[in-house]
Structure formats: structure tokens, C-alpha cells
Amino acid sequence: MLKEALKQCGLIAILRGVRPDEVEAIGKALYDAGFRIIEVPLNSPEPLQSIRLLRSALPANCMIGAGTVMTPAQVQQVKDAGGELIVMPHSDPELIRAATAAGLASAPGVATVTEAFAALAAGADILKMFPAEQLGPVVVKAWRAVVPASVMLVPVGGITPDSIAAFAKAGASAFGLGSALYKPGMSAEQVGANARAFVAALNAVNPG
Question: Record's family (predicted)?
């Protein structure tokens, strides 16, 4: 389901710091803008409750996940809350295998080709290139020469609407969006406007 969702819209919303009392309205604004994957980092206030609320509020074709997952126990907690995607800042084979065993997709964070291939060997579904600001499009292009074309490379960290074109041209498959999309305190309307700007930027690179 993860790759299908990313083919519908190659953007992942990262709602770090979101609160349960605001998450439904923000989630609906993102869905209406075209997003089909929403991630709630576990270092947000009551993240599992936010995941539950998103799962119940949004259609089945919108994938709900958790970010900053650090332990196998958290993988099970996310699954119990209705989450379908495990995102981590690092590449931990034990966590990747725990996600697979739980029937969840995994997106480990990788910053070197060695980490990338180790993550794939452990069963990673996509590769989160993190931090994208530090790696840049040049590294994406270099990785694309050796990482199989079927593997989705997803830069995360500092992505803006203006930077999408350069990363996409270098071979990025999709993008994870943090503070340029959502910061704590933003209204659902603000997030929706930011989301539409990102969708427009992506559509300009991949029309149709």
C-alpha cells in the first residue's frame, strides 16, 4: 500500500508536535489537498491518540504512520493504534524486521549507501534519505546510479516547494515534509495552503 499511496501523491506529511485536539482538522486539510500519507512522530503530544483519530477520520486510502519510532515495543503500539507505517530517523535492522513482522511498512533513515543497502537487506520498503539538507540532490543522483530503480528514495529534512524540482531531477521518488508544511500552532487552513503549494510544486515536476 505504501508505494501505491506514494504514486498517488509523492508527499508524506510529518506532523511533529501536533495535538490530538487539532489533528483531525489538519488531517482532513491535508487529504483534501491530495496527501495520502500522514505521519505523527512519537515525540509529539499523545501521538498514539492522534494516530487513532486520523485513522478513524480519514478514508482507507490515506495511510497513517508514526515517526521517530525507536523500539520494537513502539512498533506494536503504533499497530494497535491503527498505524500502517513505521518511520525512523536511523536504520535499525531489528526495527525494520519488527515492522515487517507486524505487517507494517517501514521507512528507515539512511545517510550512506552502506546504510541504504543494509536497510534493504533487512526488508525496508522505502529509504528515507535524512537529513536531505545535508545530503542534497548531488548525493541523490550518485545513489540513483547504484540503488535499484525499483527502490524509492525519499529525501526528508528541510524540503521546501522550491527545492523539490532539483531533488526530483536527481532521482528522488517522493518527499517527506516537516516544518515547511506544518509547525505547532499552525491552523488547519494554513497547513492546507502549505500542502497545496507542495502539491503544485510536485505537479510542476511530474505533470499528470
Answer: Belongs to the KHG/KDPG aldolase family.
